[in-house]
Structure to design on (180 residues):
């Protein structure tokens, strides 16, 4: 389904690129194969950007497996028997993480754009590319650590009885998730 949608988008982009009006044609035109190559480059960057945004929005599977999100804990406040003070502290933690996450995700997107610019330069400066790749991965790791740190701080808000109930909820939700 996604492949069909992407193929449709590619065909539309190609058609729009090639079907320019006669008034927009420059006096000196590049060869057809050069225009086609440029169109494929643009389409490739757009598709890569789409997948980057998809990953940024939904996150990686590993990040979800690391620990329960605070939202899941607050959603089950009655089952866990959370006090209003605990809920308030958990929501404060979640909001703080959301702000930090938005900043870090924006930094990651900017670093990826910088990396694309470095890769499009001729000749490619590999030392700058290496530094930028390391920066992107450091930012991703920082975000992942922040997620883990926040989840651990959230669990610290719970009593030992509430943590046991949380573990039971997690094991129940994993059973439901993996049943056919």
């Amino acid at each position: 389904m996604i492949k069909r949608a992407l193929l449709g988008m590619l065909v539309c982009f190609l058609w729009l690129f090639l079907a320019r009006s006669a008034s927009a044609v420059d006096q000196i035109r590049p060869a057809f194969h050069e225009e086609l190559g440029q169109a494929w480059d643009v389409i490739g960057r757009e598709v890569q950007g789409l997948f980057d945004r998809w990953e940024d929005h939904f996150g990686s599977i590993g990040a979800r497996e690391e620990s329960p999100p605070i939202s899941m804990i607050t959603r089950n406040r009655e089952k866990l028997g959370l006090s209003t003070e605990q809920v308030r502290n958990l929501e404060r933690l979640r909001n703080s993480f959301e702000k930090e996450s938005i900043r870090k995700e924006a930094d990651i997107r900017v670093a990826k754009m910088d990396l694309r610019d470095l890769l499009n330069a001729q000749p490619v400066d590999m030392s700058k590319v290496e530094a930028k790749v390391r920066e992107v991965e450091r930012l991703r790791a920082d975000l992942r650590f922040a997620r883990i740190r926040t989840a651990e701080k959230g669990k610290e808000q719970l009593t030992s009885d509430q943590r046991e109930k949380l573990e039971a909820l997690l094991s129940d939700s994993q059973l439901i998730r993996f049943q056919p």
Observations:
- The CA atoms of residues 119 and 129 lie 7 Å apart.
